[in-house]
């Protein structure tokens, strides 16, 4: 099978009206996303992430280099048939309802109308949109609900390559968690995912590989575990150790290591894990219903 | 192939639905509808006609329809310009989808045409109600123009050539001169009729459609100074029974039995209108205008157009039917404007597209009218700077390019110009269905599809940073 996304030595310079070079946005990057991979593009503002994504999708013409989607140039409709794209905000027409949004994208993809409604409903369910919002104009929906509708539209044609630009932007922690699970699910289904985000924790949770861009160049690239592993330190985790035994353990480790510094601490959950835990507990106790979000969202996120 | 067509149609339908919803759910459409409703409801009450039935029709039907079309046409053009740029980043999803640019263009164009046509239909209904309420019965009647017979123009061109100058010795050159006169007649240029000379129109035999039907003949000429007075002449209508081989314009017997004779006085406005029984044209009708000049044989030439000066008409079906007949030609105008706006919007940002499209439409509108200099020889180029220097190669190239562009624009816009629906509605003249349908086919469908090709190509080339 052809690689879903292959880019080699991509370059892009933005020019002024007279064609004079103004900004060298991308200065020769290479990228490949294979089936089942979730690749994260990281970098500060102006590092060239969005430009790279736009070149990959054919929205911008590279000044140099080569891009192929499933072995074809992005300008070929056949290449774009297997691509799902969630642009950065604002990504959807505010006068359409989520159901109409999906019908519109289904038409653009040339999908037959038979069963389109059922497919749209299933996808809107999958991205966690409340049923009461299916027929509500997006102008009356929250930013998060609109983002979910956009995500459903990106997945409509069962794409083999999914490109997500800030997919969790505007989503609450629950929505972020659901989207992260969805991305992992896509990866398990063998889809290739290219993700651009500012949220490092999000990228860390879902990506198998990352490319860190600075000033139009990829400064670091590789598997997350390999990149993040600190080979100069070792961490022992002992569950259920009584506090009075801590000092003994520290002393024993100090002796065993030949007098090296030994740090002992308690592993902490991430804030997101803690937030989700509190929310789950509240729901179990029946205290999560009501409030403005429930009224506005017709039941809120589930 | 079948699948490709189906995919194209689905993408076009999706684009149609989006454009339709975008406009119909926006404040823009509501504001436009309110504005047009106000125009149709209020404008006729504000206009002060000249007291004649024709004047009242011209004011109410002509002005109201003119203002309505100007507002609706402008709105359609600008809505087209805003279609793609107005979406901003959202359009990226369209570009990344496998939809063909052509399908996206066609769907949006059809939606613009459908919506503006629906608004036009509402305006025409309002206009009809206004006309029924405000116009006298006579102003609601329409007249169908009877065109001169095939060959009458050719015959007249040869006659004009005979009195104009001695024939050329070279037959090819002589034929070129006659052809240039034919061209002037066909384009309705005002040609001079000197004193003692006549202009003759022949009409094919035509059976009356019902008993008691009358044909109306209207005539109007201009003096060389462009005024509507100062010409002495005779206007005569003949029931064609003679052989038509007239030795002179006053050789009446050659044309047949005279059924009407009207004298045009220099002190009047050189126009006349009379009615004759339709039965008089059963074997054909001949109308002769002769410039009598002054008693001493001198006097001014009359400027006469082949179509605009003489008009023979028969009774038509009424204003309601005429409004329906005008619809294809009016829709053709809206369709073309939508396509021009969309194509501009596909290539440029909204401000640039709106400026370029508006300027282009204004230039075509102003440039599609024929300027006529009665003193210039046929096809002779008039150089305003001729006295100072001879035209050089650059002048000639610029003139050639300008002439080519002007000629192309006139040819391209000819179907709409010839259908001339707005003016005919204002004049109470029946809008020809073949002409209106041809305008819709050529300028309302074929030409927009050419713009669609250009717009789709621009869309494929466009970048979305």
Characteristic terms for this protein:
heterodimer; A: about 300 residues; alpha/beta; 3 domains; 6-stranded mixed sheet; 3-stranded antiparallel sheet; about 35% helix; B: about 475 residues; Jelly Rolls; 2 domains; 4-stranded antiparallel sheet; 13 helices
Account of the 3D structure:
The complex is a heterodimer of chains A (302) and B (465). Chain A has 3 domains: 5-228, Rossmann fold (3-Layer(aba) Sandwich), CATH 3.40.50; 232-267, no CATH class; 269-302, no CATH class. The relative contact order of chain A is 0.15. Helices cover 35% and strands 21% of the residues of chain A. In chain A, the strands form 2 sheets. Chain A has a 6-stranded mixed sheet, sandwiched between helices. Chain A has a 3-stranded antiparallel sheet with strand order 2-1-4. In chain A, helix 3 (98-108) crosses helix 4 (116-126), helix 3 runs parallel beside helix 5 and helix 4 (116-126) crosses helix 5. Chain A has 11 helices and 9 strands. Chain A has helices at residues 49-57, 77-80, 98-108, 116-126, 143-154, 173-188, 200-206, 224-228, 246-256, 271-284, 292-296; strands at residues 5-15, 21-33, 38-42, 64-69, 83-86, 161-165, 192-196, 209-214, 217-223. Chain A is of the alpha/beta class. With 465 residues, chain B is α+β, with helices and mostly antiparallel strands. Chain B has 2 domains: 2-141 and 319-461, no CATH class; 145-315, GOLD domain (Jelly Rolls). In chain B, 55% of the residues lie in helices and 13% in strands. In chain B, helix 5 (101-134) packs antiparallel against helix 13 and helix 9 (319-347) crosses helix 10. The longest helix of chain B is centred in the N-terminal third of the chain and has 34 residues, at 101-134. The radius of gyration of chain B is 26 Å and the shape is globular. Residues 370-386 of chain B have low confidence and may be disordered. The A-B interface holds A 14, 51, 54, 57-61, 75, 77-78, 80-81, 83, 85, 87-93, 95-96, 100, 103-113, 153, 163 and B 6-8, 10-11, 13-15, 17-18, 21-22, 25-26, 87-90, 92-100, 104, 460, 463-465.
């Amino acid at each position: 099978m052809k690689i879903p996304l292959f880019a080699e030595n991509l370059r892009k310079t933005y020019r002024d009206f007279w064609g004079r070079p103004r900004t060298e946005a991308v200065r020769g990057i290479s990228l490949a996303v294979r089936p089942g991979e979730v690749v994260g593009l990281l970098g500060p503002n102006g590092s060239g992430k969005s430009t790279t994504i736009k070149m990959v999708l054919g929205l911008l013409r590279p000044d140099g280099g080569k891009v192929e989607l499933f072995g074809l140039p992005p300008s070929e409709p056949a290449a774009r048939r297997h691509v799902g794209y969630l642009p950065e905000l604002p990504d959807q027409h505010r006068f359409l309802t989520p159901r109409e949004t999906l019908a519109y994208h289904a038409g653009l993809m040339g999908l037959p109308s038979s069963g389109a409604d059922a497919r749209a409903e299933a996808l809107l369910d999958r991205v966690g949109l409340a049923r009461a919002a299916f027929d509500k104009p997006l102008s009356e929906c929250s930013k998060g609900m609109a983002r979910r509708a956009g995500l459903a539209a990106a997945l409509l044609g069962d794409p083999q390559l999914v490109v997500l630009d800030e997919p969790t932007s505007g989503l609450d922690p629950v929505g972020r968690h659901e989207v992260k699970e969805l991305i992992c699910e896509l990866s398990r289904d063998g889809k290739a995912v290219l993700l651009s985000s500012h949220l490092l924790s999000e990228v860390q949770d879902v990506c198998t590989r990352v490319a860190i861009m600075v000033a139009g160049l990829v400064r670091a690239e590789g598997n997350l575990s390999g990149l993040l592993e600190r080979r100069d330190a070792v961490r022992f985790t002992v569950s259920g150790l009584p506090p009075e035994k801590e000092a003994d353990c520290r002393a024993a480790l100090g002796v065993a290591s030949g007098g090296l510094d030994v740090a002992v601490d308690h592993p902490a959950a991430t804030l997101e894990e803690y937030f989700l835990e509190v929310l789950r507990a509240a729901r179990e106790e029946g205290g999560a219903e009501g409030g403005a979000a429930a009224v506005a969202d017709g039941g809120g996120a589930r | 192939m079948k699948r490709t067509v189906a995919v194209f149609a689905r993408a076009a339908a999706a684009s149609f639905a989006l454009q339709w919803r975008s406009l119909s759910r926006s404040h823009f459409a509501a504001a436009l509808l309110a504005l047009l409703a106000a125009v149709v409801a209020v404008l006729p009450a504000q206009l002060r006609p000249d007291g004649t039935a024709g004047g009242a029709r011209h004011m109410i039907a002509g002005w109201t329809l003119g203002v309505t079309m100007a507002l609706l046409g402008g709105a359609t053009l600008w809505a087209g310009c805003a279609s793609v740029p107005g979406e901003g980043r959202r359009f990226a999803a369209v570009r990344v989808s496998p939809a063909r640019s052509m399908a996206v263009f066609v769907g949006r164009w059809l939606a613009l045409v459908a919506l503006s046509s629906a608004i036009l239909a509402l305006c025409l209904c309002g206009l009809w109600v206004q006309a029924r309420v405000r116009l006298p019965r006579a102003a609601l009647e329409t007249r169908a123009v009877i065109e001169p017979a095939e060959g009458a123009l050719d015959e007249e061109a040869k006659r004009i050539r005979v009195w104009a100058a001695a024939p050329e010795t070279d037959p090819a050159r002589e034929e070129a001169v006659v052809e240039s006169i034919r061209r002037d007649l066909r384009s309705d240029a005002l040609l001079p009729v000197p004193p003692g000379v006549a202009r003759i129109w022949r009409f094919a035999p035509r059976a009356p459609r019902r008993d008691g039907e009358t044909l109306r003949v209207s005539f109007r000429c201009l003096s060389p100074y462009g005024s509507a007075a100062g010409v002495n002449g005779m206007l005569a209508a003949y029931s064609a029974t003679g052989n038509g081989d007239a030795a002179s314009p006053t050789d009446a017997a050659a044309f047949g039995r005279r059924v009407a004779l009207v004298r045009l006085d220099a002190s009047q406005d050189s126009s006349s209108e009379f009615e004759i029984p339709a039965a008089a044209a059963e074997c054909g009708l001949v109308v002769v205008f002769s410039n009598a000049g002054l008693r001493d044989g001198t006097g001014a030439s009359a400027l006469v157009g082949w179509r605009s000066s003489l008009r023979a008409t028969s009774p038509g079906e009424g204003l309601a039917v005429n409004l329906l007949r005008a619809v294809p030609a009016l829709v053709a105008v809206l369709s073309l404007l939508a396509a021009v706006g969309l194509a501009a919007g596909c290539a440029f940002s909204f401000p640039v597209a709106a400026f370029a499209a508006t300027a282009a439409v204004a230039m075509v509108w102003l440039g599609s009218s024929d300027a006529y200099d009665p003193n210039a020889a046929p096809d002779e180029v008039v150089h305003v700077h001729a006295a100072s220097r001879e035209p050089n190669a650059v002048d000639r190239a610029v003139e050639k390019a300008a002439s080519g562009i002007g000629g192309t624009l006139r040819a391209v816009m000819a179907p709409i110009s010839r259908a001339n629906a707005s003016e005919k509605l204002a004049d109470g003249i029946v809008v020809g269905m073949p002409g209106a349908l041809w305008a819709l086919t050529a300028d309302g469908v074929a030409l927009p599809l050419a713009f669609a090709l250009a717009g789709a190509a621009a869309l494929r080339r466009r970048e979305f940073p």
